[in-house]
Amino acid sequence: MAGFKKLIFIQLLSWLLFASVGGYFVASAFDNAVSDEQYKTQSVVNNYISQHSIAEITPDKLQQVLADGNTFSSFILRDQQGKELINIQSPTSLPVVAQLVDTSFNSIRPQFAVNQASDIKVEFTINANNLGLILQQALFVVILVSGLVAIIPIVFMKTMFSKLNRNISMTVAEVIDIYINENQLNNGLETAINNNKIKQLGVDLVPSFNRLSHFLQSKHDDIQNAAQSIKQEAYKDVVTELGNRNMFVEYYEKYIESSEKSTFGSLAMVRCSELQAINQTRGYQKGDEYVKAVADIIKHISGTYTGSKVFRLNSSDFAIVLPNTPLKESERFGDNLQSRFTQYQQTQELSSVANTGIVAYEKGKPLGELLSVVDNAMSMAQSKQANAWHIQRETDLVNNVSAGFGNQNWRKVINEVIEAERVHLVMQNIMPIGKSMKAYAEIQVRFKTTENQVLPTASFLAMAEKLDMAMEIDQLIINSSLEKIKSRNFSEKFFGLNVTASSAHNDQFVIWLERRLLKDTNIASKLVFEVSEFGLQQNIKASKRFIDMIHRVGARITVERFGVGLTSFKFFRDLKPDFIKMDASYTRGLEEDKNNQYFMRLMVDLAHRIGVSVFAEGVESQEEKHIIETLCLDGVQGYYIEKPKDI
Q1: DSSP assignment of 363-430, as one string?
Q2: Domain 235-401: assigned CATH number
Q3: What is the pLDDT of residues 206-215, one digit of tens each?
Q4: Which fold, 417-646?
Q5: pTM
Q6: Which superkingdom (predicted)?
């Protein structure tokens, strides 16, 4: 574009130069023509007057001849004494250009002539109007011709440049199309161009496109690597550094469900059965340590299987893929896991660690269907014993077509526990802070199978809730606790009993509990019923009826796991609990978390204003206990204070 502008400038400059030179030569020609005309006219006048005397010239006739002004613009005839005999003035304006030339060259000048007798003197100026018109026309032709000579190349070059640009654009576009369609590099791209009509123009572009291809490929590789790194970080579990559920889904869909080659193996799901209990009683930090220990055991056992992959699906579940491993071989995997989990259970004083469900997979099997089957296997494993595993085979599914096969087994286990009253009670004291403060011991329960194996408590209670059997379990726990208290004659000690929100909101259960407590009024006054804050909030009206009944029989209420929901001051005013137990998440790292300290102090102030005592649970260190004492709480509970022990 810059070259084209330069061409226009040069052409215009050339036009001006050519027009100037041409104009100069035309002006010079006009000057010469005027001089020749003056010379000829003077010669004619000289010849005429030299042959006549003044007496022979008739002024009237001469004036009549010269009056038209075509020959002279001025003509003056004088006698010997200088007297004017004839004075003819026929001035005619020259064209503008001729006037400019005449002014510059002084071409038209007065002429003089005298006869031989010296009695005739003539002074005249020729009429150069015709010559001026010729001059102007010639100058116009010069300017026009020079302008055409200058403009035509510009128009031609512009057309040529436009066509050339269009050809180049089309050539580049076609080469790009070939590059995209053929996706060829180096000689491959050159061969594709040679077979095309754009060979002449496009072949020179091949090296540049090859360089562009390599550049784009390198950038593509860099972007893919960066994206993969970002994905790895985004898909990584923070606690265990294993891939999360998203990575598991992507792996399964890519390498199993949509695999081009035939593939088979075993999929195991491991569930941390005590995570919820540990988070509530020992704190979330201990819960993370527990999860990480389970993950380490899984990685160690699965590491002996070629190509195995481990993922953390959610807070409590792990998925293990064992490629090319038949179910028979996966039995050994389940045994090894159970053995290691049992060892860890003994060192950490847990009722259980984790259960394992195992199923077979093959190419093309949808992930959703497989997860449903392995969840069934997990339910079966949880209903057996601590750290148990269970393999779900296709034949099992054929013989038990119900989708709730695992639920049916759980229902059977729960019914057996209720009928045989296979519960084991332990208690964990809440240590009061301050001499005048009274606290109580929370009764906790462990459930056992027919083989006297401890079932995962959290899983058992969750399944009882799911199968609408929570009320029967609550009744079993309450009856067992009251009988234990009476048999041990704990007349001066206060005990806390957990009740599910679904039972507390059930009118039938409330009526039963009131009648049961009225039978042992002396014990009822020593009981504190614990219900979660979240559960109470689900039905405020039903919660109020339950709490009012508890207060009528002389017992008291604790709102446990407080701070997880969105409690308002109106919540306390309407329900009037006796105690609140702060959720263990507020105790975790309390010595460093100023926000939690501020929140707990605010809750303590509000609670004390309306006569509610505040406890902290999940206390695991001396530092946490010290901070809680400075915040003026009324009691502390946790493994640092006391571990659960038999009643």
Answers
A1: TT--HHHHHHHHHHHHHHHHTTSTT-EEEE-HHHHHH---TTHHHHHHHHHHHHHHHHT-EEEEEEEP
A2: 3.30.70.270
A3: 677 677 777 7
A4: TIM Barrel (3.20.20)
A5: 0.53
A6: Bacteria
